[in-house]
Amino acid sequence: MYPFRFCLFAVALAAWFLVRPPLARAQTPTTGALVAREIAVLKLAGGGTPLTLDERRQAAQAVQSALATNRAALLKSYAELTKPLKRAAHDRAYAAYLRLLIRYADETAQLPPGTGLDQTVAIEQQIIHAHDPTVVVDTKRQLIITEKSLRDFLTASQWLARKYHLPPPSDHFTAHLRDWFLANYVSSDDATAVALALQGVTFPYVAPVIAEANPARKQATFQQIRQQLQAADPAARDLLLAGTITALGALCAKKAEEKARFAWVDDNPYLSQESKDTLKWWLSQGWSEYVTATTIANM
């Protein structure tokens, strides 16, 4: 009985394969699509500023060179970046993270002999560096700080000062930060280095998380920060603002992730409140790093 049934199944399966429509094959992107992707990636890696007409021509030359010397590598890169770029288009935090990954890879690119992509990479590096010069590279921890990083710190600090009536950053804010990064970043501890590099990634979480914070605690916290800023000279004030926004970003990103991780616990009708609290506590132990404004301000 069972062998007979298996034969019937095998026949049916074979028939399905014979009559089913052919599977759609992934279409090879056109040269125009490859050039458009190259320009989009260069714009993202360069900090978001549009490429000039001449740079767009250079990007097209980079694609043509890659097509002629290593077509397979170019098409593989195109395929691998499709989903990340789609997500980055509507996810600000992820876009900042993707930019850092691309920017670091560009900065430290070491092509093995025979790839044929030297000209392509050289053109990409020239365009990216023209838009977003490097400040410091930490090869040990695979982190990078660029001029776009400094602009992100400035934008976030200006927002924080306006929102909570704090002394604003000085006219030399980016210069003060650049000096600190050049002198101290590579020697800073791991938690501080990562938090500073990811400031652009964590900042989008700040406003929504702070909005839900306890009003009295929030007022007391910002009053303390305000007093520290008012007592500081311009250079120290700029560093303290940068440290504060970095710490807030790290903590708010942590809170946002915890909220997302705990959502299924809170919504579970089969758990008692005691069980929910216990489970949340265990889940929260996954965090190994804790960044404070004091730690970063005293670096």
Can you describe this structure in just a few lines?
With 299 residues, this protein is mainly alpha-helical. It is built from 15 helices and two strands.
Structural overview:
Residues 1-26 form the signal peptide. With 299 residues, the chain is mostly helical. It has 2 domains: 31-132, no CATH class; 144-297, no CATH class. It has helices at residues 2-19, 31-45, 53-69, 71-88, 92-107, 118-131, 147-164, 173-184, 190-197, 199-202, 206-211, 215-231, 234-266, 273-284, 293-297; strands spanning 134-138, 143-146. Strand 1 and strand 2 (143-146) form a beta hairpin. Helix 3 (53-69) crosses helix 4 (71-88), helix 8 (173-184) crosses helix 13 and helix 12 runs antiparallel to helix 13 (234-266).
Question: Would you spell out the secondary-structure blueprint of this structure?
Answer:
Elements (H helix, E strand, L loop, with lengths): L1 H18 L11 H15 L7 H17 L1 H18 L3 H16 L10 H14 L2 E5 L4 E4 H18 L8 H12 L5 H8 L1 H4 L3 H6 L3 H17 L2 H33 L6 H12 L8 H5 L2
Antiparallel strand pairs: 1-2
> What does the largest sheet look like?
2 strands, antiparallel
The DSSP helix count reads 15
Q: Helix-strand pattern, N to C? A: HHHHHHEEHHHHHHHHH
Q: Write down the overall mean pLDDT.
A: 83
| Oligomeric organization of the protein chains | single chain
The parts where pLDDT drops under 50 for at least 5 residues are: 1-20, 286-299
* Euclidean distance between termini CA atoms: 78 Å
Shape category = globular
Radius of gyration: 25 Å
Structural class by helix and strand composition: mainly alpha
**How many DSSP E strands?**
2
Count up the domains: 2
Percent of residues in β-strands: under 5%
The helical percent reads over 70%
Please state how the strands of the largest beta sheet are arranged side by side.
1-2
